[in-house]
Amino acid sequence: MDLTARVASALERSVLPSVIARGGTIRAAAVEDGVATLEVTGSPGAALPLAARIEALILAAVPEVTGVQITGPGAGSPQPAAGSLAERARRILETEINPAITAHRGHAAVDGAGQGWVRIRLEGGCQGCSLAEVTLRQGIEPLLRSRLPDMIGLIDVTDHAAGIEPFFSAEKR
Fold it and tell me: Residue 25 belongs to what H/E stretch?
């Protein structure tokens, strides 16, 4: 079985149902020089929150794969180095993150950046959401890290207690 088929098999066994449930699909397009290219179609938010999980799964299931590249809606291509860290993070949020979290009445904004740290403020349905930390750490942060090599970390500056209509309140959890 070739590497692409092995990657496809790993996706089908564990990740594909989650991506389909989110309104998308994912397929192994190729494996070249150890990098698996996965194509995502459908909803931009179908694979974004699962990107870190997908990469970990592929790397564990197919040891010959040394990297994973996700292409398609919500994956985008690496941002050019032009602009400050805050400007580049803002472009990524507007083009890749916000279209995905809009379904939950959410919005992410860059509050600033300095010394490699990006400060993010969550708004709308994300402010006070009981799953905001998951969105940040498993969705937004891995995507920003993959696009912004000079980013050291992500800081949430949101006043979650002030959220008036969180998408998932603590009671819903």
Answer: strand 24-32
- Reported as a pLDDT band with limits 50, 70 and 90, residue 74 is very low
pLDDT for position 76: 46
Quote the pLDDT of residue 77. Answer: 44
DSSP tag of 81: S
Q: In the numeric block, which tokens belong to residue 96?
A: 């890749």
Q: What is the pLDDT of residue 29?
A: 92
Which candidate, 133, 130, 93, 135, places its Cα nearest to that of 111? 93
Instruction: Tell me the mean pLDDT in the region 139-166.
Output: 86
Catalogue all structural domains in the chain, each as residue range(s) with its CATH number: 3-71 (3.30.300.130), 85-162 (3.30.300.130)
What does the alpha-carbon distance between residue 127 and residue 138 come to, in Å, rounded to a whole number?
A: 17
Q: For the stretch 49-73, what's the b/e string if a residue is b when 16 or more beta carbons lie within 10 angstroms of its beta carbon?
A: bbbbebbebbbeebeebeebbbebb
Q: Is the dihedral of CA 142, 148, 150, 154 positive or negative?
A: negative
Q: Count CA atoms closer than 13 A to 42's CA, side-chain side.
A: 16
